[in-house]
Amino acid sequence: MAVIKIDIHTHILPPQIPRFKDRFGYGGFIELHHSPSCCSAQMVRDDGQFFRQVQSNCWNPIDRLQDCDKYQVHIQVLSTVPVMFSYWTKPQDGLYIAQFLNDHLASVIEEHPSRFWGLGTLPLQAPQLAIKELERCLEIGLKGVQIGSHVNGWNLGHPELFPFFEAAESLGAAIFVHPWDMMGKERMPEYWLPWLVGMPAETSLAICSMIFSGLFEKLPRLKVAFAHGGGAFPWTIGRISHGHRVRPDLCAIHNKKPPESYLGHFYVDSLVHDMKALQYLVDLVGSHRVALGSDYPFPLGEAHPGKLIEDCPHFSEKTKQQLLYKTALDWLSVPENELPF
User: In 10 A of CB 76, how many CB atoms?
Assistant: First the structure.
């Protein structure tokens, strides 16, 4: 059987981003400043602060498809760059930005329906607006949404966010949780540490918040996947579970069920950069809960999507197929016989 790859963790931007500062009357927004050659661009805040250099494969679907063909990736699941979440904005402004980004996603998918699927973004600072936009995302052909690891001062188990998760479960929408605005970044100004240390911690915080708050217990059909192999959570589950047992007065306030009982309840991507780590992750949560994710097109991603899975000598061909595409289909609720090839 030919190898099939579905990459659930990729990011894309529109080729042009409006100057939102002019529209809304306040700043803090990302702009895309293209180089004269149009082969690269700078992501810059509207106050001139540099954020990141990106190449044309971050906004040009044709360039992306060339890379997909090079590495035999059949389908990319597209989502926005997390810095675009804009949870800090006024609710209606956040909705406008989300709709702009989601309409762009839908247009790319419409042009290349056999190669791209999409996850929208939402104004989660206003959960009722987020629910309406989630419904619209599904109506315009997106498979679900990408959300951040927290929403301003709310962790994901916060009661204000429960109606959104309840709606997502009811609609059968896939949710991809990506770390952003990393905790403790003020203490990590050097060495790229917010991305190396803060991101794994952010993802673990998101998972723990959803478990300890009882969110997963109340919504057992919620289809959530976490970026970067679940961050630090899989590697500290022993400590987390031990803490739940010995300090129930602090940890078991809203959910008395052991944290380890949720292993295999949620999904994670395969982006752990180490073969032994990937083997451990599959042993821990099951191959049916690990999906190929590359973080394309960014440097912390897997340069050759799926190579870590394909090269692992301990995985059977059945396990490799599960990781490379079958888990993605399950998470996204797409029957295998509906694959567009």
Answer: 29
The residue-averaged pLDDT of 9-35 equals 96
**Tens-place pLDDT, residues 266-302:** 999 999 999 999 999 999 999 999 999 999 999 999 9
Backbone phi and psi for residue 117, each to the nearest 5 degrees, phi listed first: -120, 170
What is d(CA 59, CA 315) in angstroms, rounded to the nearest whole number? 35
Reduce the DSSP state of residue 180 to 3 states and report it: coil
pLDDT at 258: 97
- The Cα–Cα gap between 272 and 231 comes to 8
Half-sphere exposure of 324 (CA within 13 A, CB side): 24
- Which domains are delineated in the chain? 6-336 (3.20.20.140)
pTM equals 0.97
Q: CA distances (Å), 302 to each of 62, 216, 298, 299, in order?
A: 20, 30, 9, 8
Q: 177 and 225 in contact (C-beta within 8 Å)?
A: yes
